[in-house]
């Protein structure tokens, strides 16, 4: 079932979450461990992220370099198929521009369609660590808008090569990302919303926000989007802070602000457990206010850890 169908048929706010593929060497049970505790809340769909492999080059003498792949994660498509088969829950694989040519993208979409996966979240993706900025693959897409346009084209039966005369169109629901505090590369929120509108016009059926900790940022963002003619559902994304590492890297990495009231309480925390308890309390308060506004779904970024999200969901659903 498509995400947009879940949203159109909903009776109240849905529950959904995102997981990370495990690092290489871990088996499928590490995925089950992150999903099992959350199944009692009947998620409508589960997102599975995609991560580009990291590459380094080591000198091997005589001017030779050896390419070494690091942090390779198992395939997102395979994990989605496993989740769908084991839990009978709809999945949303992430598909990015980075590392994919248009032909690679088409192959991935054909595989998703073959497996009966109805959804995809289309993202540009980040630059790899050894790149000063995002560099698209040769014959790949530089922007999520272009990736969305290719997916929408395949839904109309538009394949890359005219020889594909007898190929059937796909029927994928397309999600896209949005940023209540603007994308880090955007000049300002206004220009970011203008680009977002182009993604919707290209074929995005719904939007999921970057995590935020101030609900007013979300409400103001949705209002501005509506004024600009963006009418698709906008799902809020939430992430409880559970340790000092989160406090240090999440605002910096994702370019988001913590509200003053939250920051004042965080600086009083002496242990990770205190940060976690505060993070759960703050996210529960956020979620209750969002529920009161009948948002489409509460979408949680678990980062592979479900304990805090379970504690939050237990107070909401």
H/E element order: HEHEEEHEHEHEHEHEHHHEH
The largest sheet has its strands arranged as 1-2-5-6-7-8-9-10
Choose one word for the global shape: globular
CATH fold descriptor: TIM Barrel
Q: How much of the residues is beta strand, in percent?
A: 15-25%
Strand-pairing-aware structural class: alpha/beta
Percent of residues in helical segments? 25-40%
Number of domains: 1
**What is the averaged pLDDT score?**
90
Rg, please?
20 Å
The CATH architecture comes to Alpha-Beta Barrel
SS summary, helix count: 11
Question: What's the arrangement of secondary structure elements?
Answer:
Blueprint: H1 3-9, E1 14-19, H2 29-35, E2 45-48, E3 54-59, E4 65-70, H3 76-87, E5 90-96, H4 102-114, E6 119-123, H5 144-155, E7 173-178, H6 189-202, E8 206-211, H7 215-227, E9 234-238, H8 244-254, H9 260-266, H10 272-292, E10 297-301, H11 307-313
Helix pairs in contact: 4-5, 5-6, 10-11
A few lines on this structure:
The chain contains eleven helices and ten strands.
Verbal overview:
Helices cover 39% and strands 18% of the residues. The protein is of the alpha/beta class and 317 residues long. It has one domain (3-313): TIM Barrel (Alpha-Beta Barrel). Strands 1-2-5-6-7-8-9-10 form an 8-stranded parallel beta barrel, surrounded by 7 helices. The radius of gyration is 20 Å and the shape is globular. The protein starts with a helix and ends with a helix.
Key features of this structure:
single chain; alpha/beta; 39% helix; 317 residues; two-stranded antiparallel ribbon
